[in-house]
């Protein structure tokens, strides 16, 4: 890899931007950020690589070589340092997700309850300034408190998080949808929110609910 390509790649990875590096067997390199214009005959090839997330060889229009895809590592932003979060966090980390807890309630968001996990006691509006959401982040809202959850859900919708889920009954979610709709979100956008949260496996305990949530997050990551 050329030094200038490596510099651009590292800069993109620090910003959590997806990158495709096209290298043909003649030694030419082309680095594309998602959304960059790509000239034929490689436009469809690069677009497909971003969509699949898989590196591959190619042979097209008299050229052949490799496509290397570099996608940001998937992560989960958990809103609420609640009992479910204590089970969900280690499970998600074992599954390969980077996890952070956001909860301004300092009595819940403590190092004792969440050892070895990034914990923020900022309100989501401030936490997302320091570390923004992106399309490779799952947003899991668990506080039941509109003052905390609603902004986080709205920001996840605006950002296009690959998964958005919220804890609560159907009645609670209907009220939540009403508030978000009043904030300008349409029916199609709001339908993305998974609520009640988690796969329908009959989960009842915090540990089982955590399994259901993680399963739904993985399903969204691998099948969307």
3D architecture notes:
The model has no long low-confidence stretch (mean pLDDT about 95). The chain contains eight helices and nine strands. It is elongated and about 60 Å long. Strands 7-6-5-8-9 form a five-stranded parallel beta sheet, with helices on both faces. By secondary structure, it is α/β, with parallel strands linked by helices. Helix 3 crosses helix 8. The chain folds into two domains: about 70 residues, no CATH class; about 150 residues, NAD(P)-binding Rossmann-like Domain (Rossmann fold), CATH 3.40.50.720.
**CATH top level assignment of the largest domain:** Alpha Beta
Strand-residue fraction?
Answer: 15-25%
Rg computed from alpha carbons, rounded to a whole number of angstroms? 20 Å
Mean of pLDDT: 93
Number of domains: 2
Oligomeric assembly: single chain
Number of strands: 9
CATH architecture of the largest domain: 3-Layer(aba) Sandwich
Task: Calculate the terminal CA-CA distance, rounded to whole Å.
Answer: 31 Å
Major sheet strand order: 7-6-5-8-9
Poorly predicted sequence stretches spanning 5 or more consecutive residues:
none
CATH homologous superfamily grouping of the largest domain: NAD(P)-binding Rossmann-like Domain
Indicate the percent of residues in helices.
Answer: 40-55%
Question: Per the principal axes of the C-alpha atoms, what is the gross shape?
Answer: elongated
Query: Describe the biggest sheet?
Result: 5 strands, parallel
- The fold-level CATH name of the largest domain is Rossmann fold
Task: Supply the number of helical segments.
Answer: 8
Structural class: alpha/beta
Order of helices and strands: HEEHEEEHEEHEHEHHH
InterPro entries: MoCofactor_Util/Proc, XdhC_Rossmann_dom
Protein name: XdhC/CoxF family protein
Organism: Rhizobium leguminosarum
Domain XdhC Rossmann: 77-217
